[in-house]
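On clarity, I found the account of how folds are encoded harder to follow than it need be. For illustration, here is how one protein appears when written out as sequence plus structure tokens:

:::
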Amino acid sequence: MDKRLVVLGGGESGVGTAILGKQKGFEVFVSDFGKIKETYKQVLIHHELDWEELGHTEAKILNADVVMKSPGIPEKAPIVQKLLEKGVRVISEIEFASAFTKATIVGITGSNGKTTTATLTYEILKEELNVSLGGNIGKSFAEQVSSEASEVKDKKNYVLELSSFQLDGIETFAPHIAVLTNLSPDHLDRYEYSYEKYIASKFRITMNQTAADYFIYDADDVEIKKWMEKHPIKAKKLPFSLQKEVNQGAYIKDKKIILTIDNTEFTMPIATLGLQGQHNTKNAMAASTVAKLLGIRKETIRQSLEHFHGVEHRLEKVLKINNVMYINDSKATNVNATFYALDSMQTPTVWIVGGVDKGNNYEELLPLVNEKVKAIICLGVDNEKIKKAFGNVVEMIVETAGMEEAVKVAYRLAERDDTVLLSPACASFDLFTNYEDRGRQFKDAVRHL
């Protein structure tokens, strides 16, 4: 049994892992190269855990039996390289925590839509099951596993939103139900700018599944299809599609979702979904497939889909001022997510974009920008790529130094019946702590206009 657990990174997943590790009898040490947030420090102190910040003490790290690396730390980090050279197991929180629970796990990944799909799935399941939401959102999976009560009668279920970074660190993790929402280039800076490597990382979600498990996926996605032709998947396959009929899985006919699993059928008119738009129809198909597999009643699924109105920072309507609608889509951290956002705009749009570019190719946005965007406001330290991509298509491109200025400029440029859209297509780490911080700053700035 591994006895010394070192946790790299004192954030949500790191602190959760430390708590679970201590509970399971490990000798635990938490090390963060940066500063640990005060709230997390208090938790570490409360649980009497050993920790350090602002640097790594190698002697206390390289003697680990197992290391949990937080998803934000790249494999290229010197301390990680040293651990790998020594042959120490370096795993993710998901891998570590899953060994200590017998719960049914639903794992949801994809370049876009995974937060919405995971949240929607959780909202449906919680009506009838004992279920928790975790992974990339909310409370860490490890901490939730640590507080699982052994005397609970109804079996526990988890819905986990999983990033490629979390999946990179798995060895035996096997969700009973895996969902892959879609694929588009993202985080390529972490995958040596290789789209193939990024796709392989996403498909790790099915790596340990058996014929008793399920894989739900977008059958319209070209890259998913290409990968599946070359790599056999053991789990039972349940596709969803807007373009063609499928025998098992979900498709659209007569403006209705039709979901077939074995011999049972579930139908629902698209018009009654709480979230509209083609990508949201796909999210609803994926979530209802999971719910049906876990035995949720049809009526419960229908009502949940009707009442669900989305997650914060994803095409979230903030306010209407002088007949201009302000929309917060801060969660759009890649080009494909911004594509959905621009595609759903019905009025002339002032688009706030930019941040840390992860190897973006803006070409696919050109037709949409040409058709819908009247002005671009850049929100990043380096905006050359954005200016180069859209300089010939949009008359007005303005560079700003922060969110407050960006919103004030947008207010001046927008006319009656326009939309101001924050959809950055980039990571947030230059001016903001994360996309939530960026979205909240946008909402605050709009409310102060």
Observations:
- The CA atoms of residues 407 and 446 lie 7 Å apart.
- The domain at 94-307 is CATH 3.40.1190.10 (UDP-N-acetylmuramoyl-L-alanine:D-glutamate ligase).
